[in-house]
Amino acid sequence: MFKALLVFLFAVVPASAAIAGNGSDAAAAPTASAGSAAAPTASGSAAEAVPVAQGELAQPPQPAPSPADLRATCAAALNANPTFANDLLRQLDEKKVVELAKAQEAFANVQVEAGARVAKNQRHVIMAYAVMWVAAAVFVLFLWLRQRALRSQIDVLRSDLAAALKDNK
Amino acid sequence: MNSQNNQPTGARGSTASWLVPLLTLLAAVGFASCVWMVFVVTPVADVLFFNQKIFYFHVANAFMLFLSVFVCGFASVVFLKKRDGKWDDIAIAGAEVAVMFGLVVLITGSIWAKAAWDVWWKWEKRLTMSLLLWLVLVAYVIVRRFAGASADRLAAGLAVFGCVGIPFIYFMVEKSDNHPQAGKEGVVATLATDMKLAFWGSVLTFFFWFVALLISRIHSARAEREVRELRESAMDAGVL
After folding, report:
1. What pLDDT score does B206 carry?
2. How many angstroms separate the CA atoms of A30 and B226, rounded?
3. If DSSP states are collapsed to H, E and C, what string results for A117-142?
4. Residue A48: how many CB atoms within 10 A of its CB?
5. Over residues B86-106, mean pLDDT
6. How many percent of chain B have pLDDT more than 90?
């Protein structure tokens, strides 16, 4: 799969560009040599550049080959020569290509992991809930202990006061 | 010492004896429902993802913090005017409950910041103002504990100062750079229906919890006042 992609990138795309470029050059060349009044227009169409002789009808413009046609042409050329793809790959520094692929894969994994961590960040949510209820529990415990201590102090003071009043009587 | 103060604390706490357990029960049921709503029913938010689940309780605690500080400030103003110990009891109860809610707000906010921004704290306007408010409340509690005879009046002044800060903190978010927005186009207003139900359910739950804690602490403050008065009586009678 990877090989096929590389072949497409390094062979098919430049080849397509070359074919497209050659087509317009070839079409443009007669115009320049003929020195006709029918100079190519800004669009650079091949058909527009064809010289028109006196008394002849202008040829209808030929449509430019579509990318799919170019691709098919290139694929056919590659298939016709099975060693062509391998020759291209041999010219590449395979080690660097593998390292680059690994780095890209690792980067993609880091992004996926980070996304998953943010999307399901249970650790911080649990921490927040724990803090909330620990604080509430500590406060309630503090209230209960203080209330208990106050009650016992009140009971002691009341009994002491009652005893003192009794003694005074 | 008046006759009311000679009554046992249990008699004066008769309302608290049934109201506090009822409110605690309501809060417990509400909390269980909210946890179910937050983790099962509400969808995961688009931007904040799972971290947004902190929001339901963090904001509810912040609302209770504001309410506690308001109760404390209002009771302090009335106390300064009337010099009635009942209002002082309410003020100190409000301050201590506010310290507890404030601590929860600051820590859960910090945990959220770590999850969302990868920092535990940011000197952002609203966070800094919230910290200052909490420190004012801590100062109130410390003054009450250690400032001696005039502690109640000194602390009342601090409470009023803290109360004035609430609107600044609430509206500060409009000027804030990073804090999630409230208001008309903010987080609460743009919540989906399920999220709104969970959020307001959470606010109601924490309101029950706030009232239960406030009543309990008022009851405790009254008991402290009773101890002080009994000691004075005992000293007058030569017991102490």
Report:
1. 94
2. 114
3. HHHCCHHHHHHHHHHHHHHHHHHHHH
4. 18
5. 93
6. 36
Select from A70, A79, A73 the least CA-distant residue to A4. A79
Assess whether pLDDT exceeds 70 at residue A2: no
Close Cβ partners of A27 (under 8 Å, ≥ 6 residues apart): A45, A46, A47, A49, A50
Chain A residues inside the 8 Å CB shell of B113? none
More confident residue, B210 or A51: B210
Contact B162, B72 (CB under 8 A): yes
| Residue A43 amino acid letter | S
The model scores a pTM over 0.80: no
Residue with tokens 């091949």: A46
Question: pLDDT class for B129, splitting at 50, 70, 90?
Answer: confident
Closest CA to B101 of B56, B128, B137, B51: B137
Residue-wise over A108-140: b if at least 16 C-beta within 10 A, else e? eeeeeeeeeeeeebeebbebbbebbeebbeebe
Cα Rg for chain A, rounded, in angstroms? 44
Q: Rounded to a whole number, what is the distance in Å from the CA of A108 to chain B's nearest CA?
A: 20
- Closest partner residue to B44 among A119, A147, A160, by Cβ? A119
Q: In chain A, which ranges are continuous DSSP H helix?
A: 2-7, 13-34, 67-80, 82-91, 94-119, 122-168
Residues on chain B touching A141 (C-beta within 8 angstroms): none
Whether residue A143 and residue B216 make contact (CB cut-off 8 A), yes or no, is yes
Q: What is the pLDDT of residue A13?
A: 57
Of B100, B220, B227, nearest to A157 by CB-CB distance is: B227
- Output the CA torsion sign for A136, A141, A142, A143: positive
The pLDDT tens digits for B22-31 are 999 999 999 9
Distant-in-sequence contacts of B186-192, Cβ < 8 A, 24+ apart: B187/B55, B187/B59, B188/B59, B192/B42, B192/B43
Whether B42 contacts B194, CB under 8 Å? yes
When CB atoms are compared, the residue of B49, B54, B233 closest to A161 is: B233
In the prediction, which pLDDT does A17 show? 55
Q: Which residues of chain B make contact with A159, given a CB cutoff of 8 A?
A: none
Whether the CB of B88 is below 8 Å from some CB of chain A: the reply is no
**Beta partners for residue B49, in sequence order:** B45
Lookup: tokens for A41 = 């227009």
